[in-house]
Amino acid sequence: MIKMQVEAENDKETEMETETEMESEMHSFSTSTSTLVAEVHLNQNTDTNSNSNVATQFKVAEPKQQEQQQTVCLTVAEKLRRFCYIGTFDVPIFAPSTLDLRVENHFAILLELCAQISQRELVECLGSVLGAGNAEQLPRRDEALLVLAVFLSTCRDDKERTAARGHFPLLVTSGKDLLLFVKFVKRVQSLMKRKTPFSRTIRKAVIDWYKLQPLERLLELWSLSDCEYCTHRDLLFHCHYTSEKFDMDILAALRLIFTPPKEVILWPDHLHPLNNFKELILGIAQVRLAQKPEEALTIVQQLHLGYQHVPRILLTDPQLLNILLPKMTYDQLLETWQKFLNVFKVHRNDQRNYTELFFEESRLRDANVEPIRLLIQESRLIKRNRVVTRGVLPAVQSTFMNNLYKRSFGLNKANGLRLHITINLEKCYIAKYLNGRWRSVKYLDAVLAFAFGYYKSESQVNVQIWYDKSGKLKPLPWTPTMTVDEAKACCERQQVVKIKQTLTDVIDNALNDASITYDAFLVLVPCATRGNPKNNSDELYRRLNEYRQARNPNAKFIIISLRENHGSMAYSKERKENILELCGISEQMPRLINAFVNGKFV
Fold first, then answer.
1. What are the pLDDT digits (tens) for 150-208?
2. Three-state DSSP class for 397?
3. Which residues contact 325 (CB under 8 A, 6 or more apart)?
4. Are the C-beta atoms of 556 and 506 separated by less than 8 Å?
5. pLDDT for 394
6. What is the C-alpha to C-alpha distance for residues 137 and 600, in angstroms, rounded to an integer?
7. pLDDT of the residue at 382
8. Cβ of 316: how many Cβ atoms within 10 Å?
9. H helical segments located in 325-441
């Protein structure tokens, strides 16, 4: 024991000596360093006046460089809002897809973001996205409902989760939204490896949604021909609705939703609270049981039923369609025009009256249908051969929809935007077609649908083109009285052979024009990779910031890569660049452009 104590004391003495040596070495190192720094300062002080001036210039320039390097980073709410609009979190690229939203592709990132955001911020974000006033700018509601499903299913804070659940009926505004939300919840539960399809929070939220719906809305939900009755029934039973307390009329309406039409006609006892609506309910049930259109014709006339109440299988009779057409919205007409044209094929007078409904200027103006949407609708009729060896077969023009497409220019609602539009009109691209899903659409037609559409609807639009290898721009000689055919001929007459497509030249052109300040720059090109330094957005971001500081702090830059299906450059994943790239064409793109320019997302 004594030997061990002696050895321990010796070890302590050795450690103390080592520490003393290290301290002396550090002191000598700091002394030598301070001496070296003093020598450097002395040498700098003995420099010539020119060197001192250079040093002074560098010292003055440092704050400016720091100001330029300061960037505004994306917040969690801004990333979620961007996802709700374009389906991505980090990069501002929208590539349209016909596939349904896959929860697996976004769940990991959503789980991380939802853990970083508070209930108040989430409700404020989703409220601005899913609100009724934002319906004309939101492409679809799927992404926003997925965010809500992930938050309510994974939030661990009871108070936050309960508070978010209280806003559920205000965010989910229709039966379709509810079923889509439930679909996402089931997938989230599966990814979390939970045994039940719904958590307790989700069950309470769903029950509250049914409880707070007005009776008229529940009856309207049941009356729709595309209502998924069995899905509502399974959902209610999974949420144990029988153990909840409902008002008598609300409970009767819920039981009506999943009661078969054959039983509804017998009017069972549980439907007695709905006696005030008995005639309408029985009439809709009889229409659903009809085997032929003639059997439903009289009921539709007597009860003044609309297109949404009649099963699709009965929409094969011209007489029944003539009753439904005056009540149909313009969107419903566009959804059904191919099928209805086939129904009226034999009845020429009815077919002419039907097509005239589309050309009514008041209806077309109120519907605010963009030309790109009609161009896509027209391309659906184009037939292709099974074997195409090279290129794309010429499109077979549809006279009816093509004329409607040409008629729609100038009938859109003006958004009050000051636009600077730049177009690539190289001869090698004008005659080409797009790639991807809409490969039957010509590049020039897609350009006109966007550029000439904005030119005819907005009051302050400057349309420019690249015309040679210098990268400079010149005005495209369009006039407000031109038709789309004349505008197309004007583009073909430009005879642009080869250009230098540099995106920064667009901003330089705007900076040199002091007569107008722009809200947005819209660039229409086959692909934005050409003339882009280092294939990233750094230089474009820097020049756009210069314009925002000098002219308009809210200016945006939008690129439409018409012949691409993916992004053309590397964008920053953290900073707010105010740049958006759209790939290909889609019916939702005018909405996205309007939402982006108005600051709905970044």
1. 999 999 999 999 999 999 999 999 999 999 999 999 999 999 999 999 999 999 999 99
2. coil
3. 333, 354, 357
4. no
5. 54
6. 9
7. 60
8. 14
9. 330-343, 348-358, 361-367, 371-379, 399-407, 427-430
Single-letter amino acid code for the residue at 40: V
Q: Check if the beta carbon of residue 539 is closer than 8 Å to that of residue 533.
A: yes
All residue ranges of the chain with pLDDT < 70 are: 1-71, 381-398, 531
* CB distance 423 to 447 below 8 Å: yes
The C-alpha atoms of residue 516 and residue 23 are separated, in whole angstroms, by 68
Which tokens hold the place of 240? 């144990």
474 forms beta bridges with 465
One-letter amino acid at 3 equals: K
What crossing angle do the helices spanning 330-343 and 348-358 adopt, rounded to 10°?
160
Q: What DSSP line would sit under 490-517, residue for residue?
A: HHHTT-B------THHHHHHHHH-TT--
Cross-sheet strand order for the sheet of 93-94:
93-94, 579-583, 556-561, 520-525, 418-423, 460-466, 473-475
Mapping DSSP onto H, E and C, the string for 53-95 reads HHHHHHHHHHHHHHHHHCCCECCHHHHHHHHHHHCCCCCCEEC
Write out the two tokens for 598. Answer: 């108005």
DSSP assignments along 1-17, one per residue = -HHHHHHHHHHHHHHHH
Tokens of 299: 């009921």
Contacts of 2 (CB under 8 A, 6+ apart): none
Can you tell me the distance from the alpha carbon of 547 to that of 517, in angstroms, rounded to the nearest whole number?
10
* Residue in this structure with the two tokens 């005659």, named with its chain if needed: 431
Tens of pLDDT along 415-431? 999 999 999 999 999 98
Q: Residue 451: which residues within 8 A CB-CB, separation 6 or more?
A: 421, 423, 463, 522, 524
- CA distances 292 to 182, 186, 312, 407, 571, Å, are 35, 38, 12, 37, 57
Which uninterrupted H or E stretch holds 579? strand 579-583
DSSP-derived 3-state class of residue 590: helix
Q: What local confidence, expressed as pLDDT, does residue 8 receive?
A: 43
Spatial contact of 405 and 349, defined as CB atoms under 8 Å apart: no
Those residues whose C-beta lies under 8 Å from the C-beta of residue 523, and which sit 6 or more positions away, are 421, 422, 423, 503, 506, 557, 558, 559, 560
Q: Which residue, among 475, 496, 485, has the nearest Cα to 429 in the 3D structure? A: 496
Q: What's this model's pTM, rounded to 2 decimal places? A: 0.85
